[in-house]
Amino acid sequence: MTYEEHYLDWVRDAYAMEKQAESILEKMAGRLEHYPDLKARIQQHIAETQQQQNMVQSVIDRYDTSSSVVKDTLGKLAAQGQAIAGMMAEDEVVKGAMSGYVFEQLEIASYTSLIAAAELIGDEEGARIFTAIREQEVAMAEWLITHLPAVTEQFLVRSAAPGVEAKK
Ligand code: MG
Ligand code: FE
Asked: I want to staple 16 with a disulfide (CB 3.0 to 4.6 A). Which of 12, 71, 135, 151 is the partner?
């Protein structure tokens, strides 16, 4: 395979990843009731994720003449599975915040690799786009890990109180 063929594959993977991200974040935000700060930050990142999809799509459009929806569909199915698994947990909000952090790390690694590939094939526009997206992923990861102790404490406090819902 050529550099360009691998590059296009990886950009498509990034697009599928962002579709999956949107699906997971929508489900989390839609279920959260008692954690307004977390919910607001997730909603902000949903908007960022939708912009990221458009930016990634613009790179695909420059390198791709055909169109593929296969990975998109697979990504959505995987996301639904993960969201459903999370809802089963009694400590859903804590597990969700942790999974969210892990997912952001996957995104950071993906864009770090994509930036290197973009530079190697001379796609300066792509490198610029993926660098901008990576900054948003780093900011989201930082927010989640910084607020994880508070989310944990709020969950424990609510969980110990009689008749108070803690999980979401
Ligand atoms: Mg993203
Ligand atoms: Fe993200």
From this structure: 71
Q: pTM here?
A: 0.89
Dihedral sign computed on CA atoms, order 142, 99, 19, 87: negative
For residue 104, the CA-to-ligand 2 centroid distance in Å is 5
Q: What is the pLDDT of residue 65?
A: 73
CA 150 – ligand 1 centroid, Å: 24
CA of 149 to the centre of ligand 1 (A): 23
Percentage of the chain lying above the pLDDT 70 cut: 87
C-alpha span between 6 and 2 (Å, rounded): 6
Query: Do residues 78 and 93 touch, judged by C-beta distance below 8 A?
Result: no
Which amino acid does the sequence have at 22?
E
Distance 44 CA to ligand 1 centre (A): 12
Q: How far apart are CA 17 and CA 20, in angstroms?
A: 5
Residue 51 Cα, ligand 2 centroid: separation in angstroms?
11
Let me know if domain 3-160 sits in CATH 1.20.1260.10: yes
- pLDDT score of 71 more than 60: no
